[in-house]
Amino acid sequence: MKKNMGTVDKVIRILVAVVVVILYFTNVISGTLGIVLLALSAVFVVTSILGFCPLYLPFSISTTKKS
Q1: What is the Cα–Cα distance from 13 to 7, expressed in whole angstroms?
Q2: C-alpha torsion angle, residues 41, 60, 9, 21 (rounded to 10)
Q3: DSSP 1-58
Q4: How far apart are CA 7 and CA 29, in angstroms?
Q5: Inter-CA distances, 67 with 14, 19, 47, 64, Å
Q6: Which of 9-18, 43-52, 56-65 has the lowest mean pLDDT?
Q7: pLDDT tens-digit readout, 48-62
């Protein structure tokens, strides 16, 4: 599994996940939409930790710096 996510991509995903969690627990978002967004946030956190996004593969996207 080759890393295909750069630092900026990881930070943005983590920030989006944190915002969604805060909005959910302050009851700004709730119900089915809240659950779906929490699940998406979990995926964002996992892909950020791994540095690999499987959806980037079919499109040959890589946000890592070229070395």
Answers
A1: 10
A2: -10
A3: ------HHHHHHHHHHHHHHHHHHHTTSS-HHHHHHHHHHHHHHHHHHHHT--GGGTT
A4: 28
A5: 25, 33, 22, 9
A6: 56-65
A7: 999 999 999 999 999
